[in-house]
Fold each of these.
Amino acid sequence: MDYTGLLAHFPPERERSLKAIKRYSMFEVMYYRPDVWLHSQRVAWIVDSLWPAIKDVFPKFDRSKARHLALVHDDAEMETGDIQAGHKAVMSSWRLAQVAKNEEKAIVKLAKKYPFRIGDHSYRRLLLDSLNKRSLESQVVSYADKVDAFCESLHEVLAGNMLFIEPIMFYTGMFARFDRKFPRLKPLLGNRHSVFANTGSRVDSWNIKTSYYAAFGRSHTARTLRKPTNFPVYNRWRELTFRYLGSKEAIAVLAHQQER
């Protein structure tokens, strides 16, 4: 699946704008800081990887809509900038309402600027759905968005960046109560047969071995990226990066340390 091809009607400036938005600005140092362009693609990959579990419990789920939602879910940040989940978690209700209003204004502006339709979907409606999260598809995308953030944080901690212990704890708590925020997702979350739906799974919870963490605290390399860790969700996340980007680009993304 060529995910970028789904947005072929957009001008190149959109890609440039999303690549210019770096994630986790609240963190002083991030060794492998991703941009919103890559993040949006990874969310789409995760949604597709969830598909076997999704179709078993949500037979009317619109897979095409979910793919497109994933790819544009952060487009409003081209106007608003990156507003992080950690910041939102401590905002007042009034401040959160202001953030939502600003995003609505951004959506109106983007909908006038970019193509009216993406495949069979209205670009404006996709952005509004991403903001309001009323559809099942947008809620699954929201979950996949958190899975990607969790794995990005694990990637940092395993390389020795202990600043990212905080987001790991934050997202672990968020997963534990996600079905309270979105009750419709309860049949999907915790599915034992889906790595991404069961984020808390471990390779061997009864026998924790030193070898699982032999590379802990060291920069990622082409060699260490191929070695399994004790976190299946993270292993799968790396595999998807290699599958869709190819070995050379995946290593550049996952092993090129940008900051110290």
Note: Residues 136-158 form the longest helix (23 residues).
Amino acid sequence: MMRESKLGIKILMSMSSNSYWTRRQALSLFTGFAGSLALHACTQQPSGSLSNTSSTATEAVPATSGSTLWIGYTPLYIALEKGFFQAGGLNLDFRDFSSATDAMAAFGAGRLDSQALVTSEAVSLSAKGVDYRIIMAADNSLGGDGILARNSITTIADFRGKEVAVEVGGVSHFFLLQVLKEAGLSGDDVRLTNVTPDAAAAAYQAGRTEIAVTYSPFLQKADQAQQDGRIIYDTSKMPTAIVDVYLFSNQFIEANPNTVTGFIQGILQAREFMETDRDEALAIAGKRLQLTPQEVEEQLKGVRLIDLPTNLEMLGNPQSDIYLLTHMNDLSQFLVSQKQIPQAPDLTNTLEPRFLKEVQT
């Protein structure tokens, strides 16, 4: 999980030169997920569950999915807008969530068939016994997540005893723990104020906190607005820290395997669309993310999308130094050491590369 890890280095070398992004509202780790599971207000059963999957060969299978907003999911937003999933036999009802804890709670409770999230969230789901399969890696963060600090704070070591605005249990919290560990500190060495990523950026911008952990577009906007400070650390310095993936519940996969292949095809078609119809692609993403096309273009530089050959290696080659299961097992041990999950879950059956192989052929 450290930045010199071969996973991040190989991904950067293997992926296509195109980069895209904007950020979902973070990764809820185990503690936040457990409480939100009971509180989530959504009561609708997943439209793609076993009881609702009878369909003819000509009608698309309904399914529900959701996540917080993140520019690494730009191909997903394009595929939804352009009907690429429908063409693959999948009628995907996608929901934007304001917090990662709510999104994870909905999936964990069976109210979503699919989800886009980071690998640390996936490990947390496994720690709760949620049965899912990762069918595709989406992106990794290369500067889209970061830590803002006032100029009086010269190094990460200076965080000791300071207040840090961060979404506790979210992706920003997880990133902070890794950065602190690299500097010889732990979460116990700082005082955490639990706020959402947008609120953390706003508090920093307004001068109410010296340190804030957030992600784009909040990260850049707060940095530009607050003159007394800068981005002291971001994921360009730790490219293995945050990897986003697409997953489906195992129940849905067993009932509707062909539509999972259709999902992957839709994502890949959307990536092609970003090359051939760039202006429209930026406009679609901007509408979803409430950004101008120019802002989308700039923020896409903060992530790398993971292409099909690299996906096949990450999900299907245990001998590879970028094998995703190795990364997740290491991440699981880290989360245990940080007391974010009680024990390391068995992740043996987490990866499902067969749909990627079907698309390849």
Note: DSSP finds 16 helices and eleven strands in the chain.
Amino acid sequence: MKIYKERIDLQSTTQIEFMDITDKVQDVVDRSGIREGQTLVYVPHTTMGVAINHNEPMLLQDFMRILYKIVPVDAQYSHDLFELRRPSSLADGRSNGHSHCKAILLGNSETIPVEKGKLVLTERQNIFAVEFDGARKRDVVIQIIGL
């Protein structure tokens, strides 16, 4: 059994952004040399998520519309009051309770099987790192376990 881990760096440019990282994850799998196993895609951030779905522009717009509807930016979040009351040296200046709530709905990891050195995804499945609090520099941990 072999374990290989690598981080990939990302830069989000908008508040909510679906960043297709499928090719980057496959590149990490290729570098790992692992042919059979599983790949963990994990975002170590509390205002990001990971999702697998179809990379179709109108569908991505639907996802964003639903996320804004379920967790509106302008609702009253207790976290935002906490951020505003923190000393300026500790606060990051963002009222981002909505971002944390969106992220908990989506989750921060996905596991994808690896067969013959390739991610087991259909032609209509893509791996997205989903930003809820952009624009920011981010990283994603990719860990492959197998033979």
Note: Residues 71 and 102 are 6 Å apart (CA to CA).
Amino acid sequence: MASHEIKTVTLIGAGKLANHLGNALKKHGFGIPQVYNRTPSQGQRLAKKLNATYTDDLNKLSFKSDLFIIAVTDRAIPEITGRLSLDGELVVHTSGTVAMSVLSKTTQRSGVLYPLQTFTGKGLVSFQKIPVCLEAAQENDLRLLADLAGKISEKIYFINSERRSYLHLAAVFAANFPHFLHTVAADLMKEHNLPLEMVRPLILQVARNTRYEDLFDLQTGPAVREDFPVIEQHRCLLSDHPEYQKIYDLITNSIIQYKKNHE
């Protein structure tokens, strides 16, 4: 029988997300009785931080938790679920791309708890402003997950697997690609003895501009102006970096075409 409230959570995984999520849960009063991870050093370190026991054997998972969170890489989820037998227990994964149905053979009480944020190994982030996307096979379990998520975050969304996959795609465009472009900028500046700190205010201003609704109205640069002499100059400067030149051409042409399509 489903409990009326989630008080204890077992973490399956001990990577970056598991560390951030475990810290947030502990901070808000949830008990973490156990951590599973196939790599002992990682798992033991997280378990010690959370005052939990550690195991590297899925068959030795304790059934004393109200919730089991699978916080592993997307590729590892099918392997984990194929070896888990937690029928009757509430089990969720944290992926933005994997459908909830992957848990159907593991338990009848399946769900998803997907925090929309990039997690690194450098410092812990505050969950309060992180959107947390929820899905559950049973309505009562969705309420339980919403209660838990509401304690660690102010932003809760109910999104099914199909819409979540598009959300994850949008997040890649919003975060992963710009981060790499910042890396490209840093490489070019380093190559030509320019301090990275010069573009930091620019990066921060672009991030602040995302508070507005119609983002393309704020697009600047030679592409949106269709300033082809400057564009060609940039292409020549990238002649020694053909891979960067391809990125430049693709994004430049996409901006020009987007503008034409929306005029």
Note: The chain is about 45% helix and 15% strand.
